[in-house]
Amino acid sequence: MQTRTVIKTLSELPTAPTTIGTMVWNQTGDWRYLTPLVADKLAPCAQHCPAGIPIPRHLGAVTRGDIEGGLALLLAYNPLPGLTGRLCYHPCQTKCVRRRIDRTISIQEMERFLGDLATDVTIEKSERTDQRVTIIGSGPLGLSCAFYLGCQGYRVAVLEPSDQAGGALVGLSPGKIEPTVLSHEINRLIRLADIRLETGANIGVAKPGEPPAQADLVILDPTGLSEEFCAPSGAVACDPFAAGSVIGSVVSVQLPKNLTPFKVPMIAHYIAAGRLLAKKASDGLRRKGLEQPAMDRSPLAVSTESIRIERFPAAEMRDKQKETWDREGAMQEAERCLSCGTCNLCLKCVSFCPDASIRPEGRNVTVEVDLDHCKGCGICAYECPRGVITMEDISV
Amino acid sequence: MSEQIKGKRELFVPGHYGCPGCGATVAMKQTLSVLGEDTIVVMTAGCWSSLIGIYPYTCLTVPVVSVAFGATASVAAGIKAGLTCQGNHHTTVLAFAGDGGTFDIGFQPLSGVVERNDDILFICYDNEAYMNTGIQRSSATPAGGWTTTTPDSARKGQRKKNMVEIMAAHRIPYTATASIGAPEDLKAKLEKATHIKGSRFIHLYASCPTGWRHATELSIEVARQAVRSRVFPLYEVIDGDTWRLSPMPEKESVDAYLNHQGRFKKMSAEERDRLQKQVDDEWQCLLGKCQVPNRAG
Amino acid sequence: MVGIRFHGRGGQGAVVASKILAHAYFKQGLYVQAFPSFGMERKGAAVSAFVRLDSAPIAERGDIKNPAVVIVLDFTLLRKVDVTRCAKPDALILLNCRENENHNPVKDSFRVAGVDAVKIALQHGLGSKSAPIINTVILGAYARISGDLELANLLEAIATGVPVNQKQNMAAAEVAYHAVFSISGELNADKNRH
Amino acid sequence: MKAVMMGTEAATMAVKLARVQVVSAYPITPQTVIVESLADIIGRGELKAKYLPVESEHTAMSSCMGASMAGARTFTATSSQGLAYMHEMLHFTAGERVPVVMVNCNRAMAPPWNLYCDHTDSLSQRDTGWIQYYCVDAQDVLDSILIAYAVAEQALLPVMINLDAFYLTHTSEPLDVPDQETVDLFLPPYRALNKLDVDDPKTFSIVCGADLFSSIKYKRQGDTLAVARLWDQVAERYNRHFNRLHPTVEAYRTEDADLCIIGIGTATGTMRLAVDRLREEGLKIGSLRLAMIRPFPREVLQRAIAKVKHVIVIDRDVSFGAEGIVAQEVKAGFFDRRGELRITGFVAGVGGNDMTVDTIIPMVRQAISGDGTAVEAGMSLWAEVLP
């Protein structure tokens, strides 16, 4: 906040009646009745994504040309995009609002493009702890769980009894998935999350009740172990989609009926299960002396009325979808995303704010309101075509 | 259109005294974000000269002078002459006046300046009445509109003066209409205008929730509706003889435009019909000038 | 202080004549002042112009009440204007007129001279038949009879004082210098012959 | 260089010598010759300046103000109705503290229309904040314009140089034209300290509340009052270069005078002749020319005629409902000597009446012997009116 320089003596007065500072000291925020609230909401595509990916967010990064940033945002919800980008039944695309204007966004194609990027990305990671987690089986659930636990700083080891990692995904026909993709995805996953992967591991259980490995927590991955594999006695069953955290030191994952046995197109569900399990496991482990983590509040779904499709002009249809995307192609496609419920820095609110009181925030992912000056006219909320800004009575 | 000019100062800072939802401030903000910091602004009595701040503080960080009512164009021409004779040919001199300072009291100097083709950019931020003094009729007030000097007992009967036609009749190099509701179009026009030497005039439609009696959040919407309904079509005129229509949305009736605004509350059905016909006729006339085949009825 | 008054019609160059004459005297070291009868200039309307001469700086301004010299650029003015109004009793009156048509409309008590300035002007291509410009011509005649103005100084003043046709104006003035004729009274013409 | 010039030509010459950069021009008799000749010398390249052939005097002053605020040296000229039309912008230029120099040719205000000399036009702009100087001859015109630029640019205040219509504007007389090199030494290029500058952006003349308004005006008042002394200092510097002095107050034969005639403009020359004539009759009389009216050179005036017992002010102007404007000024200037000083005011020479020795002397006689009724009532006596 700029301080207000005050003229106190005649000699300080400029000769001509010229200004000496700006009006920033004048806090017009107290003119306000309603306050603009900037908050991302779940887009219809994200609401229907089995992995719960807030899709407009990574599309937004790609639109801005930040392809690697887009991948990082995607990995935060899905560590195996190259696989889902090929195998998932993509309900997201059937819910895409854009289809009401011209045609749906190629969300899955984008996922695949990002997953196949050769470049590495930086992801957010917590500090390393001494707690160890061993995951037995390297199916999509196990790998996903390993990834998020690794990102949270746990020392994670994945023990795979067979010679090849991938569990249920190993041996899919090349028509479904190119042979190199699986290893590319797994390699990135273990590299980014700093995971020890051991194939051909001996995971035979010597005696009933004995833990299969020395660790603070052992997780048995149903998508990575054959059905013959018997859970050791003492293992606690856990449904990743149910409430509550993990109790006990050996966890046997119990999936809902519709996910068993393993179905390839449902891969995103297993990935989501792994992510949720990691969360529960982390909650359980932290209870041993660490502070309670903040509750993960799931965002509100955006209402369809707040998406003002009439404000979006129909894009000129390109002749044909490209076979393989380049960065520019990806950007062009991502640009078409309406970014329902998610700020994509279109800056309409910034352009239309009469009080210069809304501007991109520091991390450049959304906008923030200067409440010292915002007069609460409501233009930003009215003009936001994607329902990110709402006018709230915060005095209540 | 982003206000973020990397590595440069903010040209428009908050803390000014504009009403909530003020269209005139949006007009200035959008304009400066295109023109940049190599700009000198001349303004006159009007909303802007009083909302900009209180001595010794300002909300614009480009050089500004607030001059006598009506002297906007002439002071701007003087500034340009003063800069030119010192070898400065790059600074944009922006005369920024309201409809009163353009259509009425500022008309003679403006006509003089553009007739001499002095190298200035004149933007009229048109909110269709003397808003700063509390909503009095100007020659830019539309027929049927309420103001405090055309009260409901005597609403304005005369039609709005067509400034762009008048400017075009001066054969100035560039004149255009623009709207705060169409910032991309405004940006394109400003960029075009900055690359033209001589007098350039932009008639910039800027809504006023206080004077037009509409909700503050609708300022941009009302401006858009004026364009959609063809009450305020977007076009440009090059050298006074080449008329070009700007990108226009689908045509709509004037109803939505009128319904949002309390100043038209008392318009009868006949008045609305008459207005619709006038708008339709003028639109056809404009299409003719632009040599566009009859489209969108 | 000596006052000189010009009578003419708008467009004939009386004002310019007054300036040229003042300039010529200035070259001779005198303090001078030249000014027109003030007001709107309209072609054809009667105008006058004045010259003051003095050996000391001139503080006085405005109308010359008692001119010692009156120069009339247009003969027809004599019917409308009392050109000798308040003139000094021995004032020198110079008329633009043809020698044969002159009936000496001015009182005999004045010293009166004439020059056919129109003829000389047209001979030198100054102006047109309908509107000859005779101001420099009549000044040439005046130089001869003034008794104190050197022709060379006048010609120099004409060279800088007229905007165009300097040579023709100078030549015409010189012709007029020799063509001036007496109408009544003693002129100083001969005194000036070199 | 000696030359014969009209007052308007002297003004044009001064503008050229001052290397003015922007000229704003609108015609009005009797000023028109100035803007015509400036158009010509700028057109011929003798003066490198931008010429703005504007559509009104309001614009002439507005554009001068703008050009000056951009840092250029500017000039315009006007007269009478034109000056009145500028009125609003006169306040603005003074308030923005821009050193515009303008020539005003003093001409009577309509109605009825009249083209001749009268000072009511400029004197009724007394309160706009402009420095006002009234010339006596063509030399004074040329010199005072050059001095005016130096004063204006130092004080950051506009200066109005006033020329009597026709008596000065259209009267050719000898004068000395200074050479350009010496003028350049006296008057270096204008370097604006306070200008519209994109590298140092400021907003000029924004709305100001009561808290600072009076301070701004008070500061200007101080700076304006100081110009009375500043002008004489600059005039002294001019004198060192050109050996001609143009003070704010010029006294003539006042050393031993009991009686003093005061006026402004060209008539003060004639007043001297009247003084000489009356001195021959044994009258202890002097005259005084007020060259500057704003700021009013009160101290210099008081010092110049400290011993005078009777002052006769001849005004070529009137403030309707009061009296001659210069008379009012003089009265205010001598307020602390009321009781010991008699002041008689005349209104004479307005609208084309020549001010000659023969009109001045009877006024002096009337003032000395007059019945005093009008004088005591604080009213001016009028000359040249129907019985």
Relevant terms:
heterotetramer, B: 297 residues, alpha/beta, Rossmann fold, eight-stranded mixed sheet, 11 helices, 9 strands, 35% helix, disordered N terminus, C: 194 residues, Pyruvate-ferredoxin Oxidoreductase, domain 3, seven-stranded mixed sheet, 5 helices, globular
What does the model show?
The complex is a heterotetramer of chains A (396), B (297), C (194) and D (387). By secondary structure, chain A is of the alpha/beta class. Chain A has helices at 44-47, 55-63, 67-75, 81-87, 91-94, 107-115, 140-151, 179-193, 267-286, 327-335, 348-352, 379-383, and strands at residues 21-22, 35-38, 132-136, 155-160, 196-199, 217-220, 236-238, 250-253, 358-360, 367-369, 389-392. Helices cover 27% and strands 11% of the residues of chain A. Mean pLDDT of chain A is 87; it is low at 289-296. Chain B starts with 22 loop residues before the first helix and ends in an 8-residue tail after the last helix. Chain B is built from 11 helices and 9 strands. Chain B is α/β, with parallel strands linked by helices. Chain B has one domain (23-289): Thiamin diphosphate (ThDP)-binding fold, Pyr/PP domains (Rossmann fold), CATH 3.40.50.970. The longest helix of chain B has 21 residues, at 269-289. An 8-stranded mixed β-sheet of chain B has the order 3-1-4-5-7-6-8-9, sandwiched between helices. In chain B, β8 and β9 form a beta hairpin. Chain C is α/β, with parallel strands linked by helices. Chain C has one domain (2-192): Pyruvate-ferredoxin oxidoreductase, PFOR, domain III (Pyruvate-ferredoxin Oxidoreductase, domain 3, 3-Layer(aba) Sandwich), CATH 3.40.920.10. Chain C has 5 helices and 7 strands, in the order βαβββββααααβ. In chain C, α1 (14-27) packs across α4 (151-161), α3 crosses α5 (166-179) and α4 (151-161) packs antiparallel against α5. By secondary structure, chain D is of the alpha/beta class. Chain D has 2 domains: 2-241, Rossmann fold (3-Layer(aba) Sandwich); 249-382, Rossmann fold. Chain D has helices spanning 7-17, 32-43, 57-69, 80-96, 120-123, 138-155, 180-186, 210-225, 227-242, 267-280, 298-304, 325-333, 357-369, 373-376; strands spanning 2-5, 22-25, 50-53, 74-79, 101-106, 131-134, 159-164, 173-176, 203-204, 249-252, 259-263, 285-290, 292-294, 310-315, 342-347, 381-382. Chain D has a 7-stranded mixed β-sheet, with helices on both faces. The termini of chain D are far apart. Chains in contact: A-B, A-D, B-D, C-D. At the B-D interface, β1, β2, β3, α3 and α5 of B face β3, α3, α4 and β9 of D. β3 of chain B pairs parallel with β9 (203-204) of chain D, so a sheet runs across the interface.
